[in-house]
Amino acid sequence: MDLSDLISRNADFTPEKIALRFEGRSLTYAQFAARIVAAARALKSQLGVARGDRVAILAANHPDYLVLLYACARLGAMLVPLNWRLAVAEQIFILTDASVKTLIVEQVFADVVAPLAAALPEAQVVGLDFSRDNIPSLDVLLTEAGGDGRNPHTDFSSPLLVVYTSGTTGRPKGAVLRQEALLWNAVMSQHMHDLTAQDHVLTVLPLFHVGGLNIQTTPALQLGATVTLHARFAPGPTLDAIAADRPSLVVLVPTTIQALIEHPCWLDTDVRSLRAVTTGSTQVPQPLIDAVTARGVPVLQVYGSTETSPIAVYTRVGGDLGRPGSTGLPGLACEARIVDDAGREVPPGQRGEVVVRGPNVLFEYWGNAAATAEALREGWFHTGDIGTRDADGYFYIHDRKNNVIISGAENIYPAEIERVLAHHPAVAEVAVIGRPDPKWQEVPVAYVVPRAGIAADGEALKRHVGEHLARFKVPRDIIFVDSLPKNALGKVQHFRLRENRAVIPGPERSEGARNP
Questions:
Q1: CA–CA gap between residue 358 and residue 251 (Å, rounded)
Q2: Residue range 234-281, pLDDT digits in tens
Q3: Would you call 373 helix, strand, or coil by DSSP?
């Protein structure tokens, strides 16, 4: 068996049940399964995709995104989802690094085709929603395909996804996830959400990220539930879908929650169909959680990464949701620990690195043995995240390990300063990094996006931090900016700020009052 067989089984049991809804159209499980078979035949017979070959997709959310995922599972091939927010040069790096055989591209993103032809002349391009010149459309290939759409020696141990990390630490690496990783990830999603075939999942996050793909979407389809898919997130259509389509579950990241609660229709939207909203980040601001729970909807937290498929630690429906800041307990099918630099588990309350072990963890980084050896040690994936656990085993994530600022032999965790500054009324967004200092080794520096309509003053913000944290944690400079660099899920890319810290403006430019 392989992962596509789960879709086929659901088609056998409930052929007329709706599997996917998208832009006013529906795909039953029978139709979904048939299209997966046709896609597998097309990839094999028309494009020569063999076991282990890489098939990339560059598109917004679309039902064929999921069709191609399960078609690759059927063939023992690997899907490489491409972040459409990246520059073409970044996309070409991923395509060449993964040595893709085929690229399925949506017409709006076809700018990558010419550079790909130059970089990988052997690669074949297929139009998801168009055809031109030497680019056939996917629909035509599906119509003309024959054969059985199978490759030998394909099962749950076969690699399925090569998902490139979001780049929070620099050059992206391709995390290779086996089919079994998605299978066990789905088991944990079912446990987390009490997910059943009766659920209706609304997916608005991008499928090129494992959060949008695997926290609820693939678990729901593998269980026989219904998924409503939006091409992209927008707050108005998301609220309309919650009210009209009556989904029971949705995954949102902090930036999308913020967009929803700031929308004028937030308080008037009927959200009673939602059994839970799932969210996750290094730290989810408590005011966002409070805004959702005030509407009577529980908020679940999940912690993980691209390399853990992503579910690793979570709170669950009916569980203890009364621990502010906690991301929950290790998942049903994996282990998680907090360890010191020597790999020894630390006692409750002591900070250390979060490590995860289980069948949901990546197999390797594509073509990068050194990075694989560094991340996977004795079966444990070293996340690079700093966390603690309480006496009951609940996890709290504090920061990225490489974000820690060492100042005068003291460890300063930027997220702690960010949390304090975020509570100031003049601060809309904030990120803190370390700046080299001849006396203290490093000192903290804060980048602040001021809140519209409120005057922001650097000295006042410093005093605010000093009222809540030790003096050595007060930012040396406050730099006001219009925006912060972020990845696709809205997480601030501290490494980009560190790259630019040599040109941080001096105090005379950064600490004065700034009026909106």
A1: 23
A2: 999 999 999 999 999 999 988 899 899 999 999 999 999 999 999 987
A3: helix
Q: Which CATH number fits domain 1-155: 3.30.160.20, 2.102.10.10, 3.40.50.720, 3.40.50.12780?
A: 3.40.50.12780
Q: Where are the domains of the chain?
A: 1-155, 404-514
Which of 229-243, 409-423, 439-453, 493-507 has the lowest average pLDDT? Answer: 493-507
- The average pLDDT across 502-512 equals 41
Give me the amino acid identity at 278. T
The separation between CA 345 and the C-alpha centre of its own chain, rounded to angstroms, equals 27
User: What is the predicted pLDDT for the residue at 483?
Assistant: 92
Residue at 454: amino acid letter: I
- Per-residue pLDDT at 421: 94
Residue found by looking up tokens 């609820």 in the block = 216
Phi, psi for 395 (deg, rounded to 5): -95, 145
Mind giving me the DSSP string for 131-148? -BTTB-BHHHHHHH--S-
Spatial contact of 92 and 119, defined as CB atoms under 8 Å apart: yes
Q: Residue 213 — very low, low, confident or very high, per pLDDT cuts 50/70/90? A: very high
| Distance (Å, whole) CA 331 – CA 351 | 20
Asked if pLDDT for residue 2 goes beyond 90, the answer is yes
> d(Cα 314, Cα 278) in Å, to the nearest integer?
10
Residue with tokens 């099918």: 333
Nearest to 219 by CA among 309, 132, 316, 90: 309
Crossing angle of the two packed helices 4-13 and 63-75, in degrees rounded to 10: 110
111 Cβ contact partners less than 8 Å away, ≥ 6 residues apart: 88
> Residue 71 pLDDT more than 60?
yes
Contact predicate 179/158, CB 8 Å: yes
How far CA 359 is from CA of 88, 160, 343, in Å, comes to: 34, 14, 20
Residue range 404-514, CATH number:
3.30.300.30
Residue 515, pLDDT > 50, answer: no
126-130 own/partner pairs: CB under 8 Å, 24+ apart: 126/47, 126/102, 128/57, 128/59, 128/62, 128/64, 128/104, 129/62
Q: What is the pLDDT of residue 494?
A: 85
DSSP state of 86: S
**CA-wise closest residue to 355 among 372, 377, 338, 331:** 338
Q: Do domains 1-155 and 404-514 have the same CATH topology?
A: no
Whether 126 contacts 68, CB under 8 Å: no
The C-alpha atoms of residue 380 and residue 275 are separated, in whole angstroms, by 33
Q: Measured between alpha carbons, how far is 358 from 379 in angstroms, rounded to an integer?
A: 8
Select from 158, 175, 178 the least CA-distant residue to 166: 175
| Two tokens, residue 56 | 């990339």
| Cβ proximity of 301 and 326 under 8 Å | yes
